[in-house]
Write a structure and sequence with these properties.
- By secondary structure, the chain is α+β, with helices and mostly antiparallel strands.
- It has eleven helices and nine strands.
- Helix 4 runs parallel beside helix 10 and helix 5 runs antiparallel to helix 6.
- It is elongated.
- The N and C termini lie far apart (about 60 Å).
Length: about 425
C-alpha cells in the first residue's frame, strides 16, 4: 500500500534550507537539542542491516516519507530501504533479532516492501493504506558489504493539513490536546492550591505533608507544561523540543517518588493518629529504591532506547521492573494503613482511613491495569498503546492529586489532620523528621 517517487535534490534545496533555518531558530528559542519525525543522522557501523526509525501512518491515505541518503564512500554498495509493518509483527521481530542466524538477503526477503535508494537524491514514498493504521519500521540495507557509512535525512508526514495530525505518528496523535487540557487544569488547580497554602501559612499550619503535596503538584504541572511545549513545537516541524520533554519526564518521575512517599506517610498516620514519624530509615530506603527504578527507566528512555522492539516505555525490562516496585510499595502502603487503623479509635478518622485507603489503592492499581490494557491492545490495535497509556496515566495522577488537595483544604483538613491548630505539635515538626 505504498508507491515511490524520486525528485532531484536541487529542486528542494531552498525548501530544505528554510526548514533547517526554522529548526535552528526553534532550538535557539527553546534552548534544546531535539529530534523527532524529522530525523537526520550519520551511520558508520560494521553491519549491512541498519535500523533507522519507526512511524505509524494512519488510514486516511496519502501518508508520506521524504528521505535523502548520502554517502562519501566511493565503493558504496547497493543501498536499499526495507519496510516492515505490523500486519504480522513477529516477522519484523524475526528479521531484526536473528542477525546471527539470517544473512542480509534473508532478512530483506521478509520485508513488506523494498525501495532502491538513489544517493544524494530526495526520494518519496506514499503510503495509501485505508484499512487501518500500521506501524512501519525502516531499515537501510547494504547487503554484501562489511560496513555501512552514510548520512540520512527523513521526514514522515501523515495526511491532512491539520497541525494536530500531520507531523505526528498516529500512535501519539491527540496528545497535544491532552497536554493542553491538563496544562490549563494544572494552572487552575495550582492557583487554588496556592490559595490554600497561603491560608495555611497565615495560620502557621503549613505542615510538611502539605508541603510535599505542593512540591508534587508543582512538578506534575511542569511535566505537563514541558510536554505541551514540546508537542506544540513538534506540530509545526516534526522536530519539537525533545530535551524539554526529557526534563519534563525527569520531573514527573521525581514527582511520583515524592507522591508515593507522601501516601505512605499518611498511611502511617503521621499528623492524623501520630505526631511523630516512625521508621525513618525504611521510608528513606523505599524512596531510594523507587528513585533508582525511575532513574533506570529514564536512562533506558534516553541513553539506550530500542524503538525497534518496544512500543512504549513500560514495554521494556526497565518499565516492568518499575511496575513491580510500585506494586511492592502498594503492599507496604496497605500494611502501614492496616497497622494504623488498628491503633486508631476515633470513628471519624477510621472512616477517613477507609476512604483514603480505597481511593489510593485504586491509584496504585491503575498503573498495572493501564499496562495490562496496553498489552491487550498489542495484538489488534498496537498503535493505540502509547497514547492510551499516556492519557490514562496523566488523568489518574491529576485526579489523585486533586483528591488529596481536596482533603487538605484548610477548612476541611482539621477534621482529619492535625495541621490547623497553632498549638498543634504536628504543625511544627521540622523537615528533618521526614
Amino acid at each position: 500500500p505504498f508507491r515511490s517517487l524520486t525528485r532531484s535534490l536541487p529542486s528542494s534545496k531552498r525548501k530544505r534550507q528554510m526548514k533547517i533555518l526554522a529548526t535552528l531558530a526553534l532550538l535557539l528559542v527553546l534552548g534544546t537539542v531535539a529530534h523527532a519525525k524529522y530525523i537526520q543522522g550519520t551511520v558508520k557501523v560494521n553491519t549491512d542491516f541498519v535500523y533507522i526509525d519507526r512511524f505509524v501512518f494512519d488510514n486516511r491515505g496519502n501518508g508520506t516519507l521524504d528521505f535523502t541518503i548520502m554517502s562519501s564512500d566511493p565503493n558504496a554498495g547497493n543501498f536499499r530501504l526495507a519496510l516492515y509493518n505490523d500486519v504480522d509483527r513477529s516477522i519484523w521481530l524475526r528479521a531484526y533479532e536473528n542477525k546471527e542466524n539470517m544473512n542480509c538477503e534473508q532478512r530483506l526477503a521478509l520485508a513488506n516492501g523494498i525501495e532502491p535508494i538513489t544517493l544524494s537524491t530526495q526520494n518519496t514514498i506514499l503510503f495509501e493504506d485505508i484499512q487501518r493504521p500500521h506501524y512501519w519500521w525502516f531499515v537501510i540495507t547494504n547487503c554484501g558489504s562489511t560496513s555501512t557509512e552514510l548520512d540520512y535525512q527523513m521526514h514522515f508526514y501523515n495526511s491532512g493539513p491539520s497541525l494536530w495530525t500531520k507531523e505526528f505518528s498516529f500512535d501519539i496523535q491527540g496528545l497535544e490536546g491532552l497536554f493542553l487540557f491538563y496544562f490549563l487544569a494544572y494552572l487552575v488547580g495550582g492557583a487554588l492550591h496556592g490559595y490554600a497554602v497561603w491560608v495555611l501559612i497565615r495560620s502557621r499550619s503549613y505542615h510538611p505533608i502539605v508541603r510535599i503535596l505542593s512540591i508534587v503538584i508543582g512538578l506534575e504541572g511542569l511535566y505537563v507544561f514541558c510536554h505541551f511545549v514540546h508537542l506544540a513545537a513538534y506540530s509545526h516541524n516534526g522536530v519539537g523540543a525533545e530535551a524539554l520533554a526529557a526534563i519534563g519526564n525527569f520531573l514527573e518521575f521525581t514527582a511520583q517518588v515524592f507522591f508515593i512517599s507522601l501516601l505512605i506517610l499518611i498511611a502511617k498516620g503521621w499528623a492524623i493518629t501520630k505526631t511523630t514519624l516512625e521508621d525513618k530509615r525504611i521510608n528513606i530506603v523505599i524512596a531510594a529504591v523507587l528513585g533508582a527504578g525511575y532513574l533506570a527507566l529514564f536512562i533506558w528512555m534516553y541513553a539506550a532506547p530500542n524503538t525497534a522492539l518496544s512500543l512504549y516505555m513500560y514495554d521494556s525490562v526497565a518499565g516492568v521492573i518499575l511496575v513491580v516496585l510500585r506494586v511492592l510499595a502498594m503492599f507496604y502502603f496497605l500494611w502501614c494503613l492496616r497497622t494504623t487503623v488498628l491503633e486508631e479509635n476515633h470513628p471519624t478518622k477510621r472512616r477517613f482511613y477507609l476512604i483514603f485507603g480505597v481511593a489510593y489503592l485504586i491509584w496504585f492499581l491503575m498503573l498495572p491495569l493501564i499496562v495490562s490494557i496496553a498489552a491487550g491492545l498489542a495484538k489488534n490495535e498496537p498503535w493505540m498503546m502509547s497514547k492510551s497509556v499516556t492519557g490514562l496515566y496523566v488523568t489518574t495522577n491529576a485526579v489523585a492529586l486533586a483528591g488529596l488537595a481536596y482533603l487538605l483544604w484548610p477548612t476541611r483538613a482539621n477534621e482529619y489532620f492535625q495541621i490547623s491548630s497553632h498549638l498543634d505539635i504536628a504543625g511544627t515538626i521540622p523537615y528533618d523528621t521526614i
